[in-house]
Amino acid sequence: MFFERPKSGEKAILVHIDFGDESKAESPQELEELALSAGADPVEFLIGSRAKPSSKFFIGTGKLAELIELVVLHEAEIVIFNHSLSPSQERNLEQQIKCRVLDRTGLILDIFAQRARTHEGKLQVELAQLDHMSTRLVRGWTHLERQKGGIGLRGPGETQLETDRRLLRARMKNIVKRLDRVRRQRDQGRRARQRAEVPTVSLVGYTNAGKSTLFNRLTESSVYVADQLFATLDPTLRKIQLADVGPAILADTVGFIRHLPHKLVEAFRATLQETSEADLLLHVIDCYDDERGGHIEQVKHVLQEIGASEVPVLEVYNKIDMLDGQEARIDRDDEGRPWRVWVSAVTGEGSELLYQAVSERLSDDIFHQTLSLPASAGQLRAQLYALNAVLRESVDASGQMQVEVRLQKKDLLRLLSRLGIPSESYLMQAVS
User: Fold this and answer.
1) What region, left, alpha or beta, does residue 197 occupy, with left being phi > 0 and alpha being psi -120 to 50 degrees?
2) Can you say how many angstroms the Cα of residue 376 is from the centroid of all Cα atoms in its chain?
3) 254 is an annotated ligand-binding site residue
4) Residue 205 is assigned to a ligand binding site
5) What is the per-residue pLDDT across 155-201, written as a single tens digit (0 to 9) for each?
6) Which domains does the chain have, with CATH numbers?
7) Is 230 annotated as a binding residue?
8) Is 321 annotated as a binding residue?
9) Which residues hold GTP (predicted)?
10) 62 is in an annotated binding site
């Protein structure tokens, strides 16, 4: 039997089984938040424990009987498992309980499908959905006979299932080609920013940690914000101005989640590349969340999976307005560098401190020295003034100009190279 894809608002039975392995455990509360974000109406939560999943039904026969009673009692239209189910387990469960069964991966894919707004986001979600669906087609077409026959077409023919699998593979191949074009366009924009040497700061964090609210606060934008999981799906870029650094790009990205389906990581790799190639990551953490320790570890795991584990990180502890007596502040490491900032994106408390911390972290490579320039270095002096890099200058007894400059070291090196001046002499001055 085949059941149609559910629409929003169905009565849902949520199922969570504890297998005793904390490293692979999911959060029952998070399942409920996911279901609500998808538009479901959870009416019952079935919780149990087992040593390991049943190969046929995932749950035991006793829990299955209990689940069937709950479905009948509440006239539920969908059962959502807080786990990944195999296609055969989904099919066997549906045949027994006579309603649609959805696993955790399918639920997250459904939420992503609702949230996607841009052309690229919709393509990425569709690719992940088709990949997930490809192993689950059999439940819909097992009743159909082979389709082809007749004069000139005799032979084994092709079942409707085989036809659909072929069409699905063709559609996936087409989407991959279109995504490649979108990725090339995104790469061009990224390379243009790199040529202009505009640093990129990317917001990352667990879903619903307040990234978009903080993004709006820092950029004075109006990105969509909601108290639900995966409210933001498509990446948003805005320019900001930082002291000592100048213009920078701030990127708001999709939130991470515990055991983020690998299909989604693969599909969104181009979007997440904004994160992996950023100059600084702002790891936004909900300091009011009791599960923040596990969420921090999960974000680190996803960053490693997308190749962003080596990017410098500044932790942003958000929602201090929900903690009694917590004030905005900057925590520094043994070298005096900011490594954590306490803020409230809702009230704006700590925003200036965050700007200051980001500027300090991006200006680690700032060249701030007094250079001795001979009278013949007038062109270099003029260019330093053009870059607004001169803080003050004076002339010493020997007639040399003592010019105090502050600018990024890469800008100084590029200037010296353009003027054909060996960089070693001035950098050695700084060392001495």
Assistant:
1) left
2) 52
3) yes
4) yes
5) 454 566 677 777 888 888 888 888 778 777 766 766 665 555 678 88
6) 10-102 (3.40.50.11060), 198-362 (3.40.50.300), 366-428 (3.30.70)
7) yes
8) yes
9) 205-212, 230-234, 252-255, 318-321
10) no
